[in-house]
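Notes to self after the Tuesday call (sharing in case useful).
The group wants a holo model before anyone commits to mutagenesis around the pocket. I volunteered. Ligand is beta-D-glucopyranose. Logging inputs and output together so the record is complete.
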Amino acid sequence: MKKIFLTLTAVVIPFLTGTAQIKNPIYKDKKAPIEARIENLISLMTLEEKIMQMNQWTYGKNANPNNIGEIMKAANPEIGSLLYRSTNPEYRNQIQKKAMTETRLGIPIIFGFDAIHGYRTVFPIPLAQACSWNTELVKQSCAITAKESWLSGLDWTFSPMLDVARDARWGRVSEGYGEDTYANSVFAVAAVQGYQGENLADKYTIAACLKHYIGYSLSEGGRDYHYSDISNQTLWETFMPPFEAGIKAGAATVMCGFNDISGIPASANHYTLTEILKRKWGHQGFVISDWGSIRNLVEQSVAKDLKEAATKSVLAGVEMDMVDNAYLDYLPELVKEGKVPMATIDEAVRRIIRVKMKLGLFENPYVDVVPEKKRYLLPEYLKVAEELAAESMVLLKNKKQTLPITDKYKNLAIIGPMVKDSVHIMGFWEGMGRPEDVETIFDGLQKEFKNKATLNYALGCNFEGEDKSGFAEALAAAKKSDAVVVFLGEKRNWSGENGSRSTIALPKIQEELVAELQKAGKPIILMLSSGRPLELIRLNEMADAIVEIWQPGTVAGSSVAGILSGRHNPSGKLSITFPQTTGQIPIYYNMREAARPDLGHYQDIPRDALYWFGHGLSYTTYEYSPIKLSKTKIQKGEKIIAEVEVTNAGSRDGKETVQWFVKDPFATISRPMKELKYFEKKEIKSGEKVVYRFEIDPMRDLSYLDSVGVRHLEAGDFYVIVNNQKIKFELVD
Ligand code: BGC
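Result:
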C-alpha cells in the first residue's frame, strides 16, 4: 500500500503542486552562475520530471484553428521539447505558459523545427549555398532564418547538416555543403554563427543542431538509411572535422544519424557520442536522436526490443529521444533495475537544461508576437535570398559566350517544366515556404526582359512520363526565336530525405525534349534545377551553355533572370563534382592516389569527371599571376604566406573565389591528390587587380589526422595549388 502511494505521489505530485512550493530557488535566479542553477534544479527534480525533459514530441501541423485546444491539451507541459510545426507564436506562448505556470518547477519547453534553408523566406538548398563560397551571405541567410523562426515560436533548428557527401545518388546531398571536408567545416561555422548570433539568449537567435552525427552520407550505394562502412581513418579525416568545427563555434546541440557505422549504429555509439564529442571536443549541450533512430536500433539488429534500444542510446550519450517514447516508457524501470545509472539521467538533464538556460528560456520563455507582414519575407530578406541564389548558380559551360543574353537575342524561346513551377524550385525541406510566395522563373524573366526581348513560352514536357504532345509547340517556339532557354530539372522530392535515386540522369523525356529542340538550329541554353549533381553526358553535347541553378527558393525568378541577362555575373563554383555517368560514382576531387594512376579507369567513359569540384565560369575572365611564396623552406613553427594576384581582364565586374589547395606528395598515411585548405571570395571590378593571400600554418594546413584522431605533421616537400598552378616548398624539422 505504502509503495503504491509513493509511486503515485511521485507521478502525480509534480502535476498538482504548482510552483509555489519552492521558494526562491537558485535555479530561478538569473544572476546565479548557470552551473549552480542547473545543479539546484536537478536536485529538486523527481525521476519522472527528469525523464520528461529527455523527450521530444511533435506538435502537429494544425490547419484547423478549432482543434488547437485539443492539441494543446495533448501537449503535456512537462515535456522537454516539442517539434513545433505551427507557424503561430501565440500557440507556442500558450503552451509555454502552461509549462511555466502549471508545472511544479516551471521548466520551459524548447521548441524545435527543421528550418534547413529558410523558414518562410526560402533560400537555396545548402549544396547550392556552398557553391557561392560566400560565407557572409550564408551566415546572413541563417540569421534571417533564425529571426523568422523565433518570431514563429521556435528556439531551435535542426541544421546545419554537415555530412560530407560524395555519392550523388543519396538524396540528402542537397542538404549539406558538398563533398569537401574543409568547406563543410567553414560553412558549419557560418551557419552556427548565423543561427545563434552573438549570444543565444538574445531575441531572434535560435540554437543550431549539427547533424547527422556521423557518417550518414556514406549510406551504402547512396540508399538512404542504410549501413555505412567507415574506416576509422575516413571517420577522422573526412567526417569528424566539420563537426569539431561546429562544436568549437559553439553549436548548442547535435543530432545523431540513422546509420550504422561499421556495425555500431550512430545512435548507440559511445565512442563517437561520448568519448569524442563530449570528452575530447568538450561539447556542453545535448544530443538528440534522429526521428525514430532509437527504435531503429531494433531494425538494425543491435537491440532486441525498444527497452534495450533505450538502454543503448542513453548509455552511449543520446540525451533526448525524438518522438520514439523509448525513454519515456522504459527509463523509469531501467533506472529502478539499475541498468541505467541515475548519474546518466542527471547528466542528460544537466545538458538539456544548460541549453535552455543559455537560450535564456527561464527568464524569457515567450517570443514576441508581431503581425505576419513584419515577420516574413521582408524586402531585405528577399535581397539576401536573391544574392545568395545568384551567387550559388554555376555556369558550367558557355560556348562562344552564348550567355549572357544581350540585345543580340530579340526573341527567346522559354521552354520546360521548371519555367512556371513554384513548388519544386524551393527544394526539399522548404520549411514553411509557400508556393504562392515564390517568384517563378517566368515572372522573373518577364520583369527582366520587359521591352528587351519577346518570350515565347512552351511547356515542352512534364518532369517525367512519356507524353511528347508538347514537343511540337516547343519546337515551333524555338524556331521563331533567336535562342532557346530550356529549364529542366528535378522534382523537390527526388532529392532530400529518402530521395535516393539509382541514376542521377534526368528522365529520358527531358533529354528527348532538348534533342527535339536542337532541330531548330538555335543556340541552346540549358538551365538545370536539381538537388544533386546530374548525369549530363548527353545533354552536355547538346547545349551551348549550361547553368546549374539548383533549387534557388523564394526569389528564383529574379536570381535566374539576373544570371541570364548578366545583371548577376555568375560566380558560383561547384561544391560537388558532376560525374560523367552515375556509374562513375564515387568520384570526388580529393580521392587518394591510385596505385596505377593512368590505368584502372572505366573504359567506356572519359577518365575525368565531367565537371570537377571547384569548376565554375564567369562572364568575365580572370588572369592569375604566378603564385608567390614568402619562403620556400620553413620550420614547423613558422608560417609561409602564399599570394596570387588576380586581374579581371574582361569588361564586366565580378566576384572571384580563389581556392587554395595543398598537396603532400609523400607521407606515412597516403594523402589525397590535393586538399582544399582555404578559400576567399572577393569582388574584382573590370580591369582591377586584387591580391589574395593564404597564410600557411603548418600544424593546421600541412598535418593530417590518423585513425585515432591524432594529428601528425611530417617534414618534407609540399605543394600549394591554385587554379592549375602548383608551387613547391619544403617543411623541415
Ligand atoms: C531527418 C532529420 C530531421 C528530423 C526531424 C528526420 O527524419 O533525418 O534530418 O531533422 O527528421 O524532422
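Two things stood out.
Residues 622-732 form a domain with the Immunoglobulin-like fold (CATH 2.60.40.10).
The first helix runs from residue 2 to 16.
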